[in-house]
Each structure stands twice: as C-alpha cells, then as structure tokens.
Amino acid sequence: MTVKLSASEQMTVEQLLHLLEQAVMPLVQVTASQHEHTPKVVLAYSGGVDSEVLAYGLSAFAQKYPHIACLLIHVHHGLSANADTWVQHCITRAGHYQLPLQIERVKVDKGPRQSLEAQAREARYHAFDRYLNPGDILLTAHHQDDQLETLLLALKRGQGPKGLAAMGAIQAYQQAWLVRPLLEISRDQIEQFALQYRLIHIEDESNQDDSYDRNFLRLDIIPRLKQRWPSIAATAARSAALCAEQQDVIDDEVSHRLPDWLIVPSDTNALMTESTGFKLTGFGQLSGAWQALLFRGYLIHCGVSLPSQAQLQQILSQLLAAKDDANMSIQWGDYQVKRFAGVAYALNNSELEPLASTQLSADFNSLLNGDVADMLMDVGQHRYHLNQQTRVDKPLLVLPPANSKVTLRYGGVGSIKCQPQFASSQRQKPRELKKLWQECHIPPWRRQQIPLIFYDEVLVAAIGLWIDKRYVAQTGEQGISFLIQSAKK
C-alpha cells in the first residue's frame, strides 16, 4: 500500500505507520541481504513537534516489528537556557513511547564567517554518526515545508540542479541511510496530528529569531507565499524532484566519462600514491559546461569539499591558461589545486606541510649497526620499509663509514649534486638535484617532503628514488635497501 495524502487530508496513525514502513522496510531487506544483519532505526529526536510525531509513529513501528532495534537520539547543544529542560522532556516521552533514548552533549564552536545553524547541524550529525553501523537507518522529521525552505535557500545561493533538488526522501549517508518519511507531509498536517493525539512537544525559542535565514523564510516569507498560492509547498517539492531526476542523469553521465580523465595512483610515481590526478590534455577542447561538470566530479571523487561556482571557474581558467612549468596553486578552505606535467591534483593543505630535517632515529642507527634486520619509517604521507641485507641483484646503499654523521633531510637545495644509479652510463658527472626532480617527474610541492640521506654532508640517496652511484654497495657487500611499502594511514 502506497500512502499519498492530499494537502487537506488529516493524517492518521495507520497512515503514519505506513509511511514509515514504505521508507524503512525495503532498506531493512537490502541490509539483511548485503550485510547479513538487521539494521537498527535511529531517529534524530529534538522533541519539537515534527520529531515528536515521528517518534510516536516509530513507537507503533517498534511494536509491530520488535525484531528491529529502534533508538532515539537527542542532541544537547547547550545553546539555549532551556536545553536541560528539553532533555527531561525527551527522557519522559521516550519512556512513554517505550523507546530507548541516548542523550548526546555537543559543543558548538562558531568561528569567523561561520553560520551557527551550520555548525550546530554539523555537530548533530557527528553525534548521530557514532551510533550508525553499515546499513543502519537514520530518520529525520523534515517535511514538505522544510523542503520549500531548502529550495528557496538554494535559489538564494544561486545553486544549480544539485542544490535545487533539495532533500531526498531516501539517500545514502556514510555507510548507512538517511530517510525522511514525512517529506511529502505538510507542517499543517503534522501539527493537526499532534493536536489530535495530544502529543506534548517542546517549543525552541530560537525558532522565532528571524535573523536566521530559515526562520525568516518560515515566519515572514512562506506564509505570504501560501496565502497567495496555497499549494506552493507541494508544487515546489515537484520542482525539486524534477531537479533531482535531472541531476541523476548528469551524475550518471559524469560517472561514465570521468574515468577517462583520471590518473589513478597506480599510474603515477610511487611518491604520489595518495593522490589521484586529473588529465588536462584535451580538456580545454570541451565545452565550459562539461569542464565544470567533470572537474567537479573529480573533486567529489577525491572526497574534498567543493569550491563555489566562482572559485571553480577561477580554478578551471588558471589550470587551462597556465604553462606546463608554472608552479600554480589555487586555494579554497582546506584544499588546493596544483598542476604538474599536464595533470591537476586536488590536495589537502595538511599534505603540503613542510617536514623538519632531523638526525636519524635510534632505530635507524640500530639498522645501520646490524642490531635489527629491518624497520618501518613514517615520513610525511608515506611509509618506508628499510632493511639491511647482502647485495645480490639490486642496488643497495653502502653502510656509512665509521664515525660518520648520518642525517635525514627533506627536499634539499636544488643546487646539491648527486649521481643516481639509474642515470645513463654515458653520464659521468653528478647532476643538480633540481634536474633530478624533473627527471623523476616529482612535482615541486612533493620535493620538500622526500627524505634524503646524507653521510656527513654528502647526499648519498633519495629514499624511494635513487642511490648515488658512488655509494652503491658492491655485490656480496652489506647495504641498506629501501622502498615505499604503502601510503601512511
């Protein structure tokens, strides 16, 4: 049975229960088949009228399906003087519904140019995440009027189809599901239900503060829109659904085209294993729309926060206009886009932090002395495996002379010279380090993160790249082997 209420129809308990069943039971079956366990249902429970109605419905659902665990989570933000009273209300009502309740206390820190609403929402969802296992179902009480607010805010921000699609009734969330069973139910219908069944709920005084964008729309704008067009929430929801359909088509096409533009880690130098690159060769011949869609798809693939439309256009313009050897960098938030050898890379700022040169650890000295056979060394984003062995068929770094100082440095001055063992046999003289970086295709931003080994003040090896010919152990001689075992986790 599919529940579809008209705008004037009053919702019953049976219809509310069916709404929950329609949304939840197919996902329970999916999880049971994929994860071989029954998921739990978690309700984001504020105690306001919307979540109170949904908690009432969940109580009926839990009685009908006792094998499905249900949980209410109330987040105490500490932003209101009434927050402790709300906690007591939720405890009382949870007992009435015979549903388990978890109280989560969070701290909301509002930084400069940050929205308190957005920070509080992020804190709430972080709290919910702690209770969600793969396949679990998170319920929120968003309704049709919330959808209209979300759509109007997307218009205010100048968003495209993805933003105008607003909220989905069911969507993947982390490794779980985010479900909004009331998304086609109006605020009036929810309030009528609460009144009919005498549901006690809290009133958050901040909901009357129209300095918040959502409250401004809810209090001042949407009532006037409804007065002129009573069905605007329903028709706006249809527009959002159409935008969602269009976005699904776009996402599907991008997913088919994007792999042709990616350089995955296995295709790059081993020292780039944490980065997926985006090819720029031929990219400029695409239309501006496809450039934006594909590069945005690349950023989503990398799991980075998306730049604004203006920032994205600046990124694309600079990427396509920059010369191959240009050391360009475009930054937004915690991320940067850099270009090297015709490939763009999206990088977290934390990946680019400089590393301090240091004396090698006692563990490494133990390796040099033969006290241990091998060791793992974490440097920046990478993990190196070093061991001492006898040279048979591959170059090894000769052990340092007695009493010499062994130093680990990162990057090094470009004028330092070295003569790698991979260099052409015709090349008899050492080359400058800056030339060797180019020969190994090491991007400029990585060069200061590559560990170099010095015996006294002589560069003898770049870990994971080369050994100086003059410091390669002879066949049958003891030496040090090093390689990149894996990206550091």
What does this protein look like?
This protein has 489 residues and is an alpha+beta fold. It has three domains: 240 residues, HUPs (Rossmann fold); 89 residues, 2-Layer Sandwich (Uridine Diphospho-n-acetylenolpyruvylglucosamine Reductase, domain 3), CATH 3.30.465; 130 residues, no CATH class. Helices cover 37% and strands 20% of the residues. It has 14 helices and 22 strands. The protein has a six-stranded mixed β-sheet with strand order 3-2-1-4-6-5, with helices on both faces. It has a five-stranded antiparallel β-sheet with strand order 7-8-11-10-9. A five-stranded antiparallel β-sheet has the order 12-16-19-20-21, with no helix packed on it. A hairpin with a 2-residue loop joins β9 and β10. The radius of gyration is 30 Å and the shape is elongated. The two termini are 48 Å apart. The mean pLDDT is 85. Its EC number is 6.3.4.19. It comes from Shewanella psychromarinicola. Belongs to the tRNA(Ile)-lysidine synthase family. It catalyses: cytidine(34) in tRNA(Ile2) + L-lysine + ATP = lysidine(34) in tRNA(Ile2) + AMP + diphosphate + H(+). This is tRNA(Ile)-lysidine synthase.
SSE map:
Blueprint (H helix, E strand, L loop, with lengths): L12 H22 L6 E4 L4 H16 L5 E7 L6 H15 L3 E5 L10 H14 L7 E3 L4 H13 L4 H4 L5 E4 L2 E4 L7 H10 L16 H16 L3 H26 L4 E2 L13 E3 L8 H15 L6 H13 L7 E4 L2 E6 L2 E6 L9 E2 L2 H7 L5 E6 L2 E9 L6 E2 L7 E5 L6 E2 L12 E2 H7 L4 H4 L3 E5 L2 E5 L3 E2 L10 E10 L2
Parallel strand pairs: 1-2, 1-4, 2-3, 4-6
Antiparallel strand pairs: 5-6, 7-8, 8-11, 9-10, 10-11, 12-16, 13-14, 14-22, 15-22, 16-19, 17-18, 19-20, 20-21
Helix pairs in contact: 1-2, 2-7, 5-8, 5-9
